[in-house]
Amino acid sequence: MADDKKSNSNREPESVSVQIHPNFLSSVKLKNVKLGYHYLITHAMYLFITPLLCISLLHLHLSTITIDDLIHLWNHHFKLNDATLILCSSLLVLLPTLYFLTRPKKVYLLDLACFKPESELMCTREIFVERSIATGTFTEENLAFQRKILERSGLGQKTYVPEAVLRVPPNPWMAEARKDAEMVMFGAIDDLFTKTGVKAKDIRILIVNCILFNPTSSLSAMVVNRYKLLGNVLSFNLGGMGCSTGLISIDLAKQVLQVLFFSLTLISVYCLT
Hints:
Layout (H helix, E strand, L loop, with lengths): L1 H9 L17 H15 L1 H16 L7 H12 L3 H21 L19 E2 L1 H11 L4 H13 L6 E2 L2 H4 L7 H23 L6 E8 L8 H9 L6 E6 L5 H13 L6 E7 L3
C-alpha cells in the first residue's frame, strides 16, 4: 500500500490538449473564395473566349503575316464562304447580347422623404433619462447604460421620440406603437408620392422594415391596405435586425431589381417605436 501511494505521488499529472478548429464559415479566406467564385461565374464567357483568341493569334504567327498573306487568306478561305460569314455574324450578335443580358443592372434613387413630427414630440437627453427614472423599473446600472448610449449614438438635443415615451407614466402599449408607426410611415410616403408624382398603382415592390415593432398584421400589410397597392405587389417586411435593417432593405431592393428591372420600389425605413 505504501509503495502504491508513493508511486501515485510520483506520477506526473496528465495533460489534456484541446484542439480548436478554425471557424471556416466566418473565415476571411472563405469570404475571398466566395468573391472569387462570383467573379468567375460572372465573367466566365470572357475568361473562356480570351485564351482561345490568344491561342488562335499565336497560331497564325502574326509577326510573319504580310498584306499579301491576308489577301490570300481572304480569297481562299473566307471569301464567299457562307459558313464562315454566318459564324462571324452570329458571334457579332451573340457576344454583345450576352454581355448586355448578364451585366448587373443599374439601380437609381428617384427621391426620398423624411417625416418630421410636431415640435411637442421633441425630447432632450435629460428629459429621456428623467422619464426612464420615473418608470421605476430601471436600476442605476441600466440608467448608466442608457446615458452612455445616448452620448455615443449621436442623438442630439432635438431628437423626436414617440408620444408614449413622453407621457408620465409612459404608455408603451401596442395601440400606441401602431399609432406612432402609421404617423411616421404614412407621413413620409405621402410626402414622397407628392414630390415624385408617382401613383400607388405604379409600385411593384414594397419593402418595409422596423427595428423593434413587428405586429401582426405586418407593417407592409398596413401600407398595402392604406394605399390600395396592386394584388401582385412583392411585399417584404423586415424586422428585428437592429440599425442595419436600413442597409439590408436597400440591398434587398437592389437584388430584386436585378430580376424585375424597370420596376418602381418603395422602401419605408421605420427605426423605432
